[in-house]
Amino acid sequence: MEDVKSKYADELLIRRLEDLIEKTDKSMTESYTDFLDPRQQALISDSFKHVKGISMEFYGGYEEAERKICGIFNEYDGFNKNAFPISFLHICWKSPKKVSHRDILGSILGTGIRRDKVGDIIQKDQEAYVCVHKDIVDYLIMSIDKVGSATVHIEHCYILPELSKECKILYATIASLRLDAVVAAGFGVSRTRAVEAIRSSKVFVNWKPEISSSKDIKEGDVISWRGKGRIQLSNVVGSTKKDRVKVAIKKYI
Fold this sequence. Notes:
The protein has helices spanning 2-27, 38-47, 101-109, 137-143, 179-187, 191-199, and strands at residues 31-36, 54-59, 68-74, 86-93, 118-124, 127-133, 146-147, 150-157, 167-174, 203-205, 208-209, 222-225, 229-239, 245-252.
């Protein structure tokens, strides 16, 4: 059932892009989607890579954004990131109670806003910056005064500070660059559990589902485990005398 829903959602997205491309081609003005997750971005890139007369750019508000809006332009127009319909909210609190990423997203969606109107949420200590569609900024400022059990202050942020996703580098020695070996090392689980997750369609490579435990992973590949997070094979450092592989894995926190 989940696969059927996903396939239907993908078909709707493709049709939506076809409409936006036609609009851009006829009106000679740019068009924009709502926020897309990385898998949707990959789907669009693969589906429309041979379309002539238009260009597509993805932008999420800052350099390392994961969720991005797709801008559709006439092929002769330049890409202007400031034209994307993205605004930023700054949320801060002084409560000693912990406020999580899930709490922030839940408070936003609890106002009736759709998920595709919200981009990345970057949280640091007792504050967070949220990328949102510009049309919902005023509504969210009026609607949110609490996140979880914490009272918050929310404001439109006109100048975005330097943002980057927090991560740590893990060094490991693994038997090979097979997917199950990299997953086990990156997420700190047994090889058996890694295989189970892969076969259960919980693991994605470069935002696409992967059920083959033996798939070879390359430098730069991003691996997501649904419900557990995301890692990236940063570098293959070298090999040992017993032909095991030394790797550096970036784990996003």
